[in-house]
Amino acid sequence: MKRLLGLCREKQYSPGRHQSNDALLLDQIAHRLRERAFAVDLMTLGEANGARSGVAMVLSMCQGRQALEHLAQWERDGVAIINSPRAALNTHRDRLPALMIEASLPFPQTNLVRTKGDPDLRELDLESGIWLKRGDVHASVTADVQWIDSRDRLEAGLTDFSRRGIELAALQAHCAGDEIKFYGVAGGAFFYWFYSGDARKHPFDSARLEKLANDAAAAAGLDIFGGDVIVSPAGELTLIDLNDWPSFAPCRERAAYVIADFITKRVHAS
Description:
The structure is a single chain. The protein is an alpha/beta fold. Helices cover 35% and strands 25% of the residues. The protein has a four-stranded parallel sheet. The longest helix is centred in the first third of the chain and has 19 residues. 38% of the residues are buried.
């Protein structure tokens, strides 16, 4: 019987209902894999250092830089990990904008600044408003993404980030339109999307949305992914965020089956 190891998300990146949703997804995937005659152990990274020997694959929801750099060493030692820790690091905002631009994918102008110091504001339209986002992992709490329309608000937001131990911030141009959230599995195995918040439901090509999401995931190296896209009134699509191992909360049961199938095929192919 082949053994798999599932690593839970760190609590600081999975607060409140997110922790429950993340745990439910991992539990359901583990259940489906056990039905396929795998032995699956779920634990935190701190508990797993002595448990990695002999595992056929690691399913990692870890998100923080320290954990991912630790897992990158596991990968260099020959451990198969989904998602690759290198791919998970590619979703951090200090890497993602450049990757998307290099892949010729639509992504808003994003400036990275230190939370301590005086940022260069010459290219920023503060009067019309921009988004201040933490410069590492994607948002875990509401304060991780803030609307900024003045220098005072920007300074307050950067001070808040600095106080919370966030050293780098992303200043992202605003894209007007409907926000769409999506979830996917590599190779077209699964794709699900829905409108976020109050949407005007501008018409757009859903096949183009799926292609944009899959192209972005491929550029980052992700197998299990999610993210956010803005649909303009003219139907143009702009990616604004890409996430590794989202919770798939609106489609969890169906996604768990597909992810278990995907992992099964990957293990048998290795």
